[in-house]
Design goal:
alpha+beta, 1 helix, 21% helix
Length: 71
């Protein structure tokens, strides 16, 4: 079984940013940059803490590295 690896991006948003702008920001990050919402906390004062994540894709070599020349 292969374990999933993620990279995370965390940031805070002040209460002065309207809900519609936050939604648009998160949609754009998901659609164009491949992020998904991992956690969103809304505090009593209206501020928000956002945690986004996206998978790390590891590329495996398709040709084995062999120091011997091919004949």
């Amino acid at each position: 079984m292969v374990a999933m690896e993620y990279e995370f991006q965390r940031f805070s948003l002040p209460r002065s940013i309207p809900r519609s702008a936050v939604r648009r920001l998160l949609i754009d990050r998901a659609e164009y940059e491949g992020w998904e919402l991992s956690r969103l906390r809304v505090y009593p004062d209206g501020s928000r803490k956002v945690e986004l994540r996206r998978r790390i894709i590891r590329i495996r070599p398709t040709v084995p590295r062999d120091p011997r020349p091919m004949i």
